[in-house]
Amino acid sequence: MTRQLFLANGLPLRAITIPQFCAMYSLSRQTTYNMINNGQLKSVLQGGRRRAIQVSR
C-alpha cells in the first residue's frame, strides 16, 4: 500500500514501507538501512512507522 505525503510546497511525495521497497528491488533490510545511512535513500516516519523514499531516479 502506498501513502501520499506532501512537501511544504504542496507537491506530493510517494512513500512505501521498507519491506515493500526491499521486495521491489530484491534488497535485504540491512542493505536498505545501509543505503539510508549512506544518504542514498531518505527515510521518514509516518504513523509511527519508518518509510523509505527514493531521493533520485
How would the blueprint of this fold be written?
Elements: E1 3-6, E2 12-17, H1 18-25, H2 29-37, E3 41-46, E4 49-54
Antiparallel strand pairs: 1-2, 2-4, 3-4
Could you state the order of secondary-structure elements as H and E?
A: EEHHEE
Query: How would a crystallographer describe the biggest sheet?
Result: 4 strands, antiparallel
Overall shape: globular
Task: Enumerate the strands of the largest sheet in spatial order, edge to edge or round the barrel.
Answer: 1-2-4-3
Average pLDDT level: 74
Poorly predicted tracts of residues: none
Number of continuous helical runs = 2
Radius of gyration: 11 Å
Structural class category: alpha+beta
Could you give the distance between the termini?
Answer: 20 Å
Number of strands: 4
What is the share of helical residues?
25-40%
Q: Assess the beta-strand content as a share of residues.
A: 35-45%
How many structural domains does the protein architecture include? 1
Brief account:
The chain is of the alpha+beta class.
List its traits.
alpha+beta, four-stranded antiparallel sheet
